[in-house]
Amino acid sequence: MKRALITGITGQDGLYLGELLTQKGYEVFGLVRGQNNPKLELVHALLPQATLVFGDLTDLSSLIRALGVAQPTEVYNLGAVSFVAYSWENAALTTDVTAKGALNMLEAIRLYEGANAGSVRFYQASSSEMFGKAQEVPQREATLLWPRSPYGVAKAFAHHMTINYRESYGMHASSGVLFNHESPRRGPEFVTRKVSQAVARIALGKQQTLTLGNLDASRDWGFAGDYVEAMWLMMQQDVADDYVISTDETHNLRSLLDVAFARIGIDDWSGYVKQDAKFMRPAEVDLLVGDSSKARAALGWAPRVGFTELVNMMVDTDLTLQADQA
Ligand code: NDP
Ligand code: GDR
Q1: Which residues pair with 177 in a beta bridge?
Q2: CATH superfamily placement of domain 187-219+249-288+305-324
Q3: Is 151 labeled as catalytic in the residue annotation?
Q4: Whose CA is nearest to atom 35 of ligand 2?
Q5: DSSP H helical segments within the chain, as ranges?
Q6: CA 312, 315, 316, 317 torsion: positive or negative?
Q7: 190 Cβ closer than 6 Å to some ligand 2 atom
Q8: How, if at all, do strands 51-54 and 251-252 pair?
Q9: How far is CA 314 from the centre of its chain?
Q10: 178-180-182 Cα angle (round to 5)
């Protein structure tokens, strides 16, 4: 039986990946931080067979211990401070968790593997935020990294460190450069979920308006359920490598609003949406769109859920959730 250790199992991707690996017959272990993590109940409900190990990416000894408990064949490093806007206000913490945390996990695996380099396959959750001030459109594996946020810088460090451990120690370490992926499980701080929640509340008469930042931001938005399959596929390759994962389509925030409001029968959303400078970022990543042709050819991966279907799925789920709440 294959055994997988997932850091960040309480997050959006950790939950989908845990479900996928359980369906594939894996024994799943999840690293959970904090002595009383509020998301534990959710993990127990969705992943009843998973074994949870307490630890923190900033604590190397806890990672060594987690490897000893899980004895994994695959490690998926999804844990991070992942909210870009927050990373300016917490740059050192972001560096400790998102950058140095990845190094800690690589180092823990190197020590755990000993003479058996490559016996544990490692996945690093890299990000399109590393492309930042995009040096070419669309962005592919070879595009120069130019991160524009402390989060992007931290992810670039972790990405290069993953490649470095592969090249220096022969580790089976892959980096998935994933573009934005969303779902009804997305944290409410991210813009897609902020919109789907607000639109649902407006439909139910619970909220009047929605306040956003830069409406011209464009993203390549896919469905998280599709993207965890790409992570798994990378880990099944004999040779570790790096892959861009994206839909290869870009949409701006205005078209996200068009689709979300249309779902509740509103064609002109201008009276419902306000802008506030507090949601603008010190440096913006204006246009991100991926070129995932390498992954499509080498892994046989392709996204299944399109943009409109994704937004509708999120609005529909929030309509149900909001209707259930008093
Ligand atoms: P989430 O924000 O939903 O989840 C982040 C996870 O990291 C949570 O489980 C959180 O646990 C955990 N975590 C935070 N700090 C620590 C720490 N010190 N030690 C251990 N775990 C910690 O992110 P997603 O699921 O959306 O993303 C998964 C990964 O993929 C992240 O690394 C993200 O940066 C990256 N990524 C995401 C993309 C996306 O569009 N979703 C695109 C590209 C990359 P806790 O419950 O304790 O808070
Ligand atoms: P992002 O996602 O920064 O791309 O990072 P987010 O949804 O936060 O922002 C997307 C774009 O929307 C603009 N925007 C707003 N964003 C938020 N959160 N709130 C607002 O009110 C708002 N108004 C406009 C932003 O300026 C931005 O341009 C996500 C995270 O999951 C990262 O961890 C991951 O690495 C990248 O995606 C790929």
Answers
A1: 126, 244
A2: UDP-galactose 4-epimerase, domain 1 (3.90.25.10)
A3: yes
A4: 127
A5: 12-23, 40-46, 60-70, 84-89, 91-94, 101-113, 150-169, 191-203, 224-235, 253-263, 293-299, 307-324
A6: positive
A7: yes
A8: unpaired
A9: 17
A10: 120
CA angle, corner 179, sides to 319 and 159, nearest 5? Answer: 135
Model confidence over 192-241: pLDDT tens digits?
999 999 999 999 999 999 999 999 999 999 999 999 999 999 999 999 99
CA 300 to mean position of chain CA atoms: 21
Which numbered ligand comes closest to the C-alpha of 12? Answer: 1
Q: How many CB atoms lie within 10 A of CB 244?
A: 28
Output the CA torsion 139→141→145→150 (10° steps).
90
Ligand 2 pocket mutation pick from 81, 190, 209, 310 by most atoms within 8 angstroms of CB: 190
3-181+223-245 CATH fold: Rossmann fold (3.40.50)
Q: What is the arithmetic mean of pLDDT over 274-302?
A: 93
**35: which 2 tokens?**
């002595």
Please work out whether the CB of residue 213 comes within 6 Å of at least one atom of ligand 2.
yes
Task: Give backbone dihedrals phi and psi of 278, rounded to 5 degrees, phi first.
Answer: -65, -15
Atom of ligand 2 nearest to the CA of 280: 26
Q: Spell out the domain ranges in the chain.
A: 3-181+223-245, 187-219+249-288+305-324
